Amino acid sequence: MMGSIEGRVMATVALWLLSLGLALTSAFATGKAPSGLAYSTASAHVLQRQSAPGSCHSIGRALYSRPDPHCTPGVVNPVVTQATIGTTICRSGWTSTVRPPETITRSEKLASMAAYGLRESASRYEYDHDVPLELGGAVNDPRNLWPEPDYPPRSSFYLNPKDRLENVLKRMVCRGAMTLAQAQRLIAFNWVAAYNQLHIGGA
Known about the structure:
Blueprint: H1 2-20, H2 24-29, H3 94-98, H4 102-115, E1 125-129, E2 145-149, H5 161-175, H6 180-198
Helix pairs in contact: 1-6, 5-6
């Protein structure tokens, strides 16, 4: 099962690289990460300013929503590179060492919800990293965080479809079946399309 998923992922990556024209050489030329995404050094311990209220608009609906690419295009952590994955994202427990504290993200989440015009209870949303920490996403940059709809039942919290895709991609990166840059592009460009085309399901 996992082998077929990996095959579909690699085929999809190849097609998307072609259509997007995101060659690694051009990414280096513009000073961005190999994925073509910008680097961020925003501190996990400093409250970050969010977009203006009502200025952001999600794409899609419910659990398959995607962030506004103008507000939340996805940015990455310069500490995490292909050369350092063994000591960062592929090391057990590493993400807990860089995750911003709730004392910071609580206020940011509410401001981000206002930016996206959301007035429901904050408990219905996960303040989610567009490019996840597990794939080298920036730790506390408003360009990489947004209020993602989550399952209403508490027992299913943090088990949305995007999380399952992230888990599959991280395993592939850490096994050497996919580069970090490819995984970051799949997530940031259109995670819903990747999830649907690859039939991740409960992987």
